[in-house]
Amino acid sequence: MGDESLAGHHSPGRRSARGSDRKTRRRDRRPRAGGFGGGSAPAAPRADADDADACREAALTLLDAAARSSGALARRLVDKGFDTNVVDQVVDRLTRLGLVDDQAYAQDLLRSCLHRTMGERGVLSEMTRKGLDPGLAAQVVAQASREGLFVDSAYELGRKVARKTAGLDLKVRKRRFWSAGSRKGHSPGLLNQVAADLFVSDDSLD
């Protein structure tokens, strides 16, 4: 192939144009303020930010999608651009109507966490993350602890790990149980108790 033909396929002008295009695209992909690496982007200003009716409709739509604590609902509404004072009024009104019930939500969340064999510390962290008042979360967790629910949860986790690790070296089995129990927020003392009861030489678990 001749020099002219090669130049037609790989001309410096075309390389320069392609390079310029790539630079432009890279600039376009550059993170904007508040984007990745810069924190959450602020909500765009909205004309109805102080409209209680619009805020209430948005709240009901969110509640239709999933049950939420009052704290989580308020955060979502603020993220949508509604005025904080309007959000507080709407959430308070929905709470008085019984459409938002933090106590019931906390109990449902507790049951879900126990079903996942979570421990006291793990449940408390999950409740706080879900927007529940720390005082209410601590109260619900303390009651569950008094009822022995976290002990039951830890033993259930121990039985699951024991079944999955049957036939492995005893130290390996205990280590895997400890790892799982720590991730789920069980206390070290309780994990020691369960390990001593369930992970013994020549154990046989149903």
Automatic annotation (TrEMBL):
InterPro entries: RecX_HTH_1st (IPR053926), Regulatory_RecX (IPR003783), WH-like_DNA-bd_sf (IPR036388)
Keyword Cytoplasm: yes
Region named Disordered: 1-50
Ranges of compositional bias, category Basic residues: 11-32
Pfam families from the UniProt entry: RecX_HTH1
Domain RecX first three-helical intervals: 55-94
Compartmental location: Cytoplasm
Keywords noted in UniProt: Cytoplasm
Main location as per UniProt: cytoplasm
Keyword Cytoplasm: yes
UniProt record similarity statement: Belongs to the RecX family.
Protein name: Regulatory protein RecX
Source organism of this protein record: Bifidobacterium choladohabitans
